[in-house]
Amino acid sequence: MWFTLAALAQVQAPRLTEHPEALPEQAGCDRYEGTASGNDPTVRLVVVLCEEGSAVTGQLQWSSLVSGWNVRDLEGGRDGDVYTMRDVAIVEEKAEPGWRFCKIDRYSLRREGDAMQGDYRSLVCNDTAQIALARMGSAPAPHDGPVEATPLEPPQRSSGLCSVASTVPVGGGLVLLGALGIRTGRRTATSK
Q1: What is the mean pLDDT of residues 27-55?
Q2: Percentage of residues in the chain with pLDDT exceeding 90?
Q3: What are 133-148's pLDDT values in tens digits?
Q4: 127 CB-near residues (< 8 Å, 6+ apart)
């Protein structure tokens, strides 16, 4: 029997050796990366939050070389700098042997500049953890209106001094051909 248990332990699926590819940016949304310190203290979080008024939606990617990874859909709201959200669904998951993923009942995060800090609570998994996130960027919102042309600046008059430089490729390099300085001015006749 002992030999059978040892053989089964060796047949188990290999553990993750690297984090999955992070969630991509989404147009008009903010992207954060950070950590959570709960039942598995090795978690990396990638969060994409989209706001429309005080409503917040998004996705959270949970990734750990110990417990596995998952992607969750989020929804909630914002009141000033405080974000309160919950998991709507775990849409993708790969738990390591001996681990399971539970929905988070409440995320409570406070935004301070480009950082967010707070906690989460899962009743089913009896898990509470601290979260620390840093904003990694915002994807520009799609532009729905017409593109406005930027008027060109009219050429500026110079003081009459002009220099011209040109380059021509020669044998893989560039050779400066020359510079020409021209000065224009009024000629006056001299009399004796």
Answers
A1: 91
A2: 51
A3: 999 977 666 545 444 5
A4: 38, 39, 102, 120, 121
Residue 161 has a pLDDT of 41
Residue 82, both tokens = 């405080």
Question: Which of the pair, 170 or 58, is modelled with greater confidence?
Answer: 58
